[in-house]
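**Sequence, structure tokens**
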Amino acid sequence: MADELFKKILNRIASENDRINIAMFPVDVRQGSDFARGAKLFLKAIKVDDFFPMHFGGDYKEACDFSEYAESPETTFHCLHKPGETVELR
């Protein structure tokens, strides 16, 4: 049920926005083996310039292992995992 609702909402967003400059998306490894599933679906449906994982509960290494969900060569992936850490976007 939740999966279908997510896909329905994602399809609506994608129909209105085929490209997003910046996306902050929950990638929570505490959810188990499917922790990156939503990010994969999101990045497949919408072109994103700069992607930031969020809500990874302090254990950033898996969430920032973008090989799990980074199939988009035009997307730059960023991992902000220290308090106060920043990145400059152009």
User: Anything to note?
Assistant: The CA atoms of residues 4 and 48 lie 22 Å apart.
